[in-house]
Amino acid sequence: MLLPAKSEVARQLRHYRAWERSMLASPTDVTVRTTFEDSGYTLCVLMGKRCAREAADAAERYLRTNLVTHAQEPPERLAPSGHRAPSGAA
């Protein structure tokens, strides 16, 4: 599966959360509600989910998992030629 760019997922998730707060503060404002629903739809498309809440949860897991995974991986060692060095080589 092709995964979206982490920066785009983070941006859309921030956008969704901001409109969610606005919608909760002004639930009768039609413009705020419509924009919130549009941001949820965008997040659904990006994350491949049918429900905005599921999409937001998936986005948070995706961002959290990638950050932890990359932080735990040792940096690749490159040989002077720019290729990956054999195991055990410095």
What descriptors fit this protein?
3 helices, mainly alpha, DUF5133 domain-containing protein, 0% strand, DUF5133, 90 residues
Task: Give a quick precis of the structure.
This protein has 90 residues and is mostly helical.
Structural notes for this entry:
This protein is mainly alpha-helical. The protein has a domain at 6-63. 66% of the residues lie in helices and 0% in strands. Helix 1 (6-25) packs across helix 3. The longest helix is centred in the last third of the chain and has 21 residues, at 52-72. It starts with 5 loop residues before the first helix and ends in an 18-residue tail after the last helix.
Secondary structure: elements and pairs:
Blueprint: H1 6-25, H2 30-47, H3 52-72
